[in-house]
Automatic annotation (TrEMBL):
InterPro entries: P-loop_NTPase. The lineage of its organism: Bacteria, Bacillati, Actinomycetota, Actinomycetes, Streptosporangiales. It comes from the Bacteria. It comes from Microbispora bryophytorum. This is Sulfotransferase. It holds the Pfam family Sulfotransfer_3.
Amino acid sequence: MRPPTHILVVNGVKVRRPVFVVAAPHSGADLLSRALKRSPGFHVTMGRGPVARVVHAFARRPSIARSGGAPQVLRDVLAEAWQVVPAACAECTATCREAGGIVGAGPCVGPGALSRFGDASPDLLYSVPVLLRAFPDARLIQIIRDGRDVVADMLADPACMTWVKPHMLSEDAEFPNPFLGVRSAEHRERWAGMPPAGKCALRWRGAVRLSAALRRELPGEHLLTLRYEDMVASPGEAIDAVSSFLESKISTIALYGRTIPRPGSWRRRLSAEDAELVEKVTRDELARLGYR
């Protein structure tokens, strides 16, 4: 007998077709999330503390994500993040608050106008199997960006650099480890001795391999893939694609006027040695994705 469909109600609204933006670090998830957050009826969170802790637990230990209780844990933590109460935004990250245009404690939305919920927490990509079990009608938007530009941004981000320290791949780490991009325990010492640029390249490679698997496995009505470069070059066309996919009017203005790294900026931001290493690690994926 088929189990009953779980119904989640937040702020008096049934959560239907929630939207999740997934990508490798610094691939543009925050850029698209800004547009979603500023669209009528949408409530999109980005990196709330409790959500981030669950997401990183699933990312670092996939066996936890495969447990029977994982979907309920993720539903509960997202439901709490989506609650609209006084001072709700005080717990949000600076990125989320800025994207929502928050001054003070918030909240960033009014509960009476809500119709769609979503999340774009960093590293949410690694929780996609749990998301789909928790929300079978979810809509996923994944963003792909040139791995060399991604690495250049990661190297400049202290938060990303905390994940490349040797102790992050501890003796009790699980393999394969898509989060750090390491396939087996045999590569542990090799990973530990790599320069930071190489470790960042492995993270990007692992992420885009997961993204490729999603494109093979999910039907078109559940997954939309965008390129960062297309969002930057043609914001209107990118948002039109998102609006059609979500069957909702999405704000375009949030993509204009942003000071963001331009495609190809890795050429001046990466040293010759780092660029060579990144291209060596990611050669196959760069070619498959059409990055010359």
